[in-house]
């Protein structure tokens, strides 16, 4: 796939809960292979739901998503969502609250999916896991359990675990919002490291500094639609839409 081809193409995406609470209302987004997309917007604007849909964790009411030019998720309003689970394996996601298995040590958390899903040998998976833990400064914690880790360490382990399946796209949902301020930087540095290695990613965050430093594009979502989409210096520094300006002034206390 060329750098200019769409990695992800979302068209006419609708998602509601119980047919009453409409979260996404005709969302259209196209993402290229080199993009690092930061999604910002008010609570309830559909940001986390968008990530969960992309990960195949939520059904949709209507719309289509292609990934790498292949059909991935689709629904025509009939109540059924079609999803290609093979395509889904190309996507990794890290959640706000770590979701590590408490009964497994760090190395056990990392090797579980490659061994169970891919049939990889434990020895090969352990070797790859230790390489990732070394890279993230966590080798000394390989045999520790999640309860013995700081929040920042847990989140770095969660990122390493997602990378064990060699994803073509990474999704990060407010991964620093549950952390103490002094632990935020260590997690952001790991994600910046991935960005430098050209890993495509979609990030939901309220951290203005992080958004400016990691994003190649910023998308402002409100009311279940894309209100503004552009480079970070434009959307965050000189937004065109009044709704975007109001949000940035209110949340980030930046006047335009």
Automatic annotation (TrEMBL):
Record's bilayer topology term: Peripheral membrane protein
UniProt cross-references to SUPFAM superfamilies, sorted A to Z: P-loop containing nucleoside triphosphate hydrolases
Origin: domain of life: Bacteria
Signal peptide (residue range): none
Main location, first listed in the record: membrane
SMART domains xrefs: AAA (SM00382)
PROSITE patterns named among the record's database cross-references: ABC_TRANSPORTER_1 (PS00211), ABC_TRANSPORTER_2 (PS50893)
One Pfam family linked to the record: ABC_tran
Domain ABC transporter: 8-248
Keywords of this entry: Amino-acid transport, ATP-binding, Cell membrane, Membrane, Nucleotide-binding, Transport
Places the protein is found: Cell membrane
InterPro entries (alphabetical): AAA+_ATPase, ABC_ATPase_HisP-typ, ABC_transporter-like_ATP-bd, ABC_transporter-like_CS, MetN_ABC_transporter-like, P-loop_NTPase
GO molecular-function terms, A-Z: ATP binding
UniProt similarity note: Belongs to the ABC transporter superfamily.
Name listed for the protein in its UniProt record: Amino acid ABC transporter ATP-binding protein
Organism of derivation: Ciceribacter thiooxidans
């Amino acid at each position: 796939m060329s750098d200019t081809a769409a990695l992800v193409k979302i068209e006419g995406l609708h998602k509601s809960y119980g047919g009453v609470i409409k979260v996404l209302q005709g969302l259209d987004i196209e993402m290229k292979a080199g993009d690092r997309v930061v999604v910002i917007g008010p609570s309830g604007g559909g940001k986390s739901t968008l990530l969960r849909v992309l990960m195949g964790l939520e059904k949709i009411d209507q719309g289509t998503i292609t990934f790498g030019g292949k059909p991935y998720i689709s629904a025509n309003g009939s109540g059924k969502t079609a999803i290609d689970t093979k395509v889904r394996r190309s996507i990794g996601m890290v959640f706000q609250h770590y979701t590590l298995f408490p009964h497994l040590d760090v190395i056990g958390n990392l090797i579980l999916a490659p061994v169970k899903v891919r049939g990889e040998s434990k020895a090969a998976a352990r070797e790859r896991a230790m390489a990732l833990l070394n890279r993230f400064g966590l080798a000394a914690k390989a045999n520790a359990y999640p309860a013995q880790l700081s929040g920042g360490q847990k989140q770095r382990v969660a990122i390493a675990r997602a990378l064990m399946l060699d994803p073509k796209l990474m999704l990060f949902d407010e991964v620093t919002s549950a952390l103490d301020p002094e632990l935020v930087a260590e997690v952001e540095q790991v994600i910046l490291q991935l960005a430098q290695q050209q890993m495509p990613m979609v990030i939901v965050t309220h951290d203005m500094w992080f958004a400016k430093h990691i994003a190649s594009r910023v998308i402002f979502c409100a009311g279940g639609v894309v209100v503004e989409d552009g480079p970070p210096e434009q959307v965050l520094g000189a937004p065109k839409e009044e709704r975007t300006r109001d949000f940035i002034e209110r949340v980030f206390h930046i006047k335009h």
